[in-house]
Amino acid sequence: MNVTSALFALIGTLVGGSITLIATWIQNKNQITRDYIKIAHDLAKEDYNKILSFSKPGQIVLPIESFMTYYLKYIKIIQNNNFKLEDLNELKKFRNELNEFYLKDNNN
């Protein structure tokens, strides 16, 4: 085996290994996103069903999409590495705005 063949083999190995690492990193990042969406969905479904079971006839219950939107925002905030208690105020404000949006839409 001459030096040129060994060099090409080394370059091929480095390129192939790099592509594998990048593909694995992208796949892992996408899997984490899917997991967060699944967690938000499960939380929203549980919350929605609980509120629905306690609601009285004629009482307005927001659609499940509002719960899903809230929990997606919730997960986005809590996964932040710089999470602070003040972030919960932002979440509370978001939920109030979300509720107002759906209630306003329901009254028209």
The ordered string of helix (H) and strand (E) elements is HHH
Mean pLDDT: 88
Biggest sheet record: none
Q: Over all CA atoms, what is the radius of gyration?
A: 24 Å
Shape: elongated
User: DSSP strand (E) fraction?
Assistant: under 5%
The structural class is mainly alpha
The DSSP helix count reads 3
Q: State the end-to-end distance.
A: 80 Å
Measured as a percent range, the helix fraction is over 70%
**Count the strands?**
0
Low-confidence stretches: none
Describe the structure.
82% of the residues lie in helices and 0% in strands. The chain is an all-alpha fold and 108 residues long. Helix 1 (3-54) crosses helix 2. The chain is elongated and about 85 Å long.
Please give a quick description of this structure.
With 108 residues, this protein is an all-alpha fold.
Defining key terms:
108 residues, mainly alpha, 3 helices, elongated
What secondary-structure arrangement, pairings included, does this model have?
Elements: H1 3-54, H2 64-78, H3 86-107
